[in-house]
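Question (not urgent): is this output format expected?
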Amino acid sequence: MLGVSGNVEETLLQRFLRAYGKLFGSRPELFAPFFVLACLGISIGGWWKPLVEQEKVIGGSKFASQWYVTGSRTQKHVDTWESEDGHHAWSPKAVTTIFTSRGDPETGDILTSAAFDEIFHLYRQWTSLSVSVGEKSYTTWDLCARGNLVDVPSMCTGLETTTTTLPTTTTTSVTRTTTSITTTKPPTKTTTAAPDANTYGWEYYTPTTTTRTTTESDENMTTTTAASRTTSTAARACVPSPYMPCLMVSPFQCFSEQHELNHISYQHLDSVISELDPLMLPYTARPSFRGTNDTWIKQHLSMPRNDARYDEEAPPGRSRGCHWFTSQGFFPVDLWAGRASWGEDGTSLAGARGLRLLFYLDGSRRAMERLGLTMPELADEDAIAVAMRELSRKWQALVAEHNSNFSHVEAANVEPWEYVEELVYSDPNAVTQYALFVSCGAGAAVLIYPCLFLSCRHPQASHGCLAAQGFLLIVLTLLTASGLFLLCGYQLSLVTAMTLPFLGWVSGIDYIVVLIRYLSQLGIDFIRIERRDEVLGEILATAGPGITFSCFCSILTFGFGMLTPIPAVRDLCVGAMLVTAVNYLVMMNVFAPLTLLEAWCIKTIKPDAHPLVCCCHRRAIRKARASFDAWDPDNDTMQKFKEDPQEGTWLREKYARFLRTRYAQFAAVVVAVALFVVADWNKGNRRIGFDPEEMLESSHEAYRGIQLLFDYFSVFPSNLCFYQVDVPGRQREVLDLYQAVTGSTYAVEGAFNNYLTTMYSVMTHSVLDLANVSEVPALMENDGELLAQQAGLNMSMASSGIAPYGMAPLDKDNFTEILLELLATPSDSAKAWSPATANGSRASLYLDLAGVNEFAWDPAFNESYQPRIRFTVMPFFTANLENDDHYHDAIDLAIAQLDASPLKDDAFIYGSTFTHWEVLGQLEPQLLAAIFRYTMVVLVGAFVIFEMDVIATLVVCLSCYMVVIEVYGFAVIWAKFNAYFFALMFASMGLAIEASSHLVASFAVARGSVETRFSSALANALPAVLASTCAVIGAILPLALFPVFYPALFYIRYPLGMLALHSVVVLINGLFIAPALLAMVAPPIEALRRKRAKLFRICSRCCRRQKAPQDAEALKREAKGDS
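Got this back:
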């Protein structure tokens, strides 16, 4: 055999593979079964716990924590969010129900009276749901988000007296008399009826006495006023505190019909609720939409915000909408209207294509705390979490049931996003579903690709049974590699389950085809004469270098791929390395020995056991034996039994001669450049994003809801987070950043005021609660300067809208003491509805709704200090995300605003959708870096494996780079750049080497001149490329032609589409571009090498001639005795 440069000697790799083949071929019946048993042992060991002990093997990490770039700012933010898990148990989660017009959704208007009637019929059933978890039964009122105001059944405590000391004031006076004034406010009586003897009737008799004493001092010329208020409340009915309204973002909040969804205990209180708390807005004072026309409905849905936060210059979608039960909660049009249009005046809705209702389930911890005071038997956090999921599913089924009966609207539902994210990324059913999908493709492959090796007329050239046995070994490879992957402590995910079979399938088929091809090239005479160890040694020496080089480069590719700073990619690369290595070992140690069995069948002229040709072969051989008395394989009549039709001369002569012409080489260059340029241009037009509904079957209950959510709505929840920020001392900076973020084009304020604005509001209203009606005008003079003073606010830091009367004290301990006092949950319903006191009040309800209970705190150092706020969130909505570009524009703008803030190192934005797209935007640079590393790996690997053969190195490197770029550039035509695309590109890089590795390896080890070596390489390698790609494409076609085989569009666009594209690109490059490139660069480089070798020989000869005389003179001197 020749070396890499055409020398007579074999390469070191060839000699090693030949020796290994001889060793293995001497006792294949011993070594091969031992290796199979080892693989089965690893497979059973890895899959024992998942299959027998039901151990979880599907990774449960969220997308962001799997795909962020290690060391990036995103990682810091995601890890901070995940580590502060105390707030997650308090965070509410939204069930989203979407409605569109039953006619044409693109033109139909959903804001009509008929549509509202149908929607409300379903809407009102939300609060009547109930579920059971074991022996515990939960209702919507137990699980919905309605704050932490406890439902305490203790309003029959008789008469309770509360005395509050008002702040002392000192003023200058010129009057020098002492006066004592006592004023008593007339008793007031508030009563609500109890219809039908309902136990939730409310009746209060509340006399309030205010005493004010004024004392003057002659010496200091000052007046000191001390005031106190004594309130006595008598409850005539023993009833619990009312159930506050559940948080539901919907347009029905604008109408009195929303009151029908409130708890009966709140319904009887609603008419006087504003007298108990001025911040509350009664539903009974709102208009009804029943019996009205469409125009009237749209006008009342366009009412401006009714508080200090209203901004006339803000877009109407943010400043107009509906209030909740309190002025602190506001639901702008952008939150619930999809593709809304506005009238010419810009203040009235003209219509909307979609309508979204958000039903919030409470945080499991908050629900547990609330239930622990009223129904302790239900206060089980794990059971509450299960009940919330069951309630969500029950509502999903109810929406589907009503949708079939609607005539004006179409309804679809989306469960809380954390359930959807689990469904999309780590659902075991999704992995199982994809495994079945791969099995369908594998079944098609096992039926199709062995047919490529069948020959009915030539029994000794038919290897279909051997090919089928090879496919079973691919299955063994995947089981062994995945079992080893699990034994190493890794978990499977949809990404690994999608990519690793892709990799093992394609590379395994390629190795099988190459080994079968080189077996056919040995010839009948060689197989008949040589021993089996010589046969196996020859097969490995000729086919082995290409397979080894391919495996070597793939392992190096995935090894260097582990340098990619993305956790999911590192796990993927570990799995890919295991699949590649195990595939190589199985093919070289199990399938290669199986070729000896095939060689024995060829030698003894046995029929191929494949069912499609076995009978044909048996009949042909039986007839031939009946025609001859002696079975002579050398007889000319019997040549058809040993003739190999693949031994034709078309590739070796005609196609090789064609590729050596200038026309063919010019055409190859044009095609290569055209494909590369178009692919590179397409690469620049890639779309970064993801369509979650594509992961689901069109019949899946969540499919339509997710589709409508992303098609019609562009508003998604996000959180402005602060970590280790001195919130009391930096209130101004915190609020400035919040205003900058929510005031941008792509953001909308949250449905409830941020916690600082809410804190300022309850501080001022606590003062107003304690003041007489006659005192209010004085408090509000000079923009509320006296009000701010008595509330303890710093008026110099006032800001319109978010802090109209100033900000809280900057001192940490003072700020925290005030916040915790206001946040204290009332232990008694009477206190819950009294003015602010040290024992807690309804102020805790507002602060809880603003998210204060979701904070993470550092404990106090000692009793002299207050605890410190460690982590806080300000919810808002990312808005106006009409397309994929808007997502990234919103992220870039938000990051720019964060960078411009003094808090940039301690503040960040987190949201399921926001962070998802932020992570996706960081993947492309990592892929480009991986492609560069891959090219360098192939360059170095080829240079080492082929012992510095420049021709082999150049051709392989260019071919691999073109294949990867072309797959990348053409795949983005139908697929978006996301995590799955990234993973499949890694698999494509590992397989791109197949386009040229066997061709170059065959050229490098062939005998003779460049032309002879090139012809031999074409005859040996091109059938392998053609057979492997045709086998893959043939397996894909049944899946593509019959939709029953694939469950979702995702499988067509990503694994199936990219697998087909990769096969086509490899086919074009492997059959035409790479051979033409080899034909073009081989002669000049080979001529240059020969000239260099000739020059080296001439120089060596000259040196020897120059040394020869000197040596002769030395001998003469030595003979004469001269030294």
